[in-house]
């Protein structure tokens, strides 16, 4: 597994939208509204499970020690 930043996710999403031909086409493929997808693309909302699944990603929560002992 590789950790990705939000910028990495948005870059993958942009590539997938280009491949689909339009935001509307990608939104239909992912099963989300075009409005929701537009909000994700413009950074107003975080991508949900359907959008992430459509670009072969999954959100994973991580905890990291700030003391450097783990």
Description:
With 70 residues, the chain is mainly α. 53% of the residues lie in helices and 0% in strands. The longest helix is centred in the N-terminal third of the chain and has 15 residues, at 6-20.
Strand content: under 5%
Question: What is the number of helices?
Answer: 4
The H-and-E topology, N to C, reads as: HHHH
Termini gap: 19 Å
Tag the structure with descriptive keywords.
70 residues; mainly alpha; 4 helices; elongated
What topology emerges from the helices and strands here?
Elements: H1 6-20, H2 23-30, H3 34-41, H4 49-54
Helix pairs in contact: 1-2, 2-3
Briefly summarize what is shown.
With 70 residues, the chain is mostly helical. Helix content is 53%, strand content 0%.
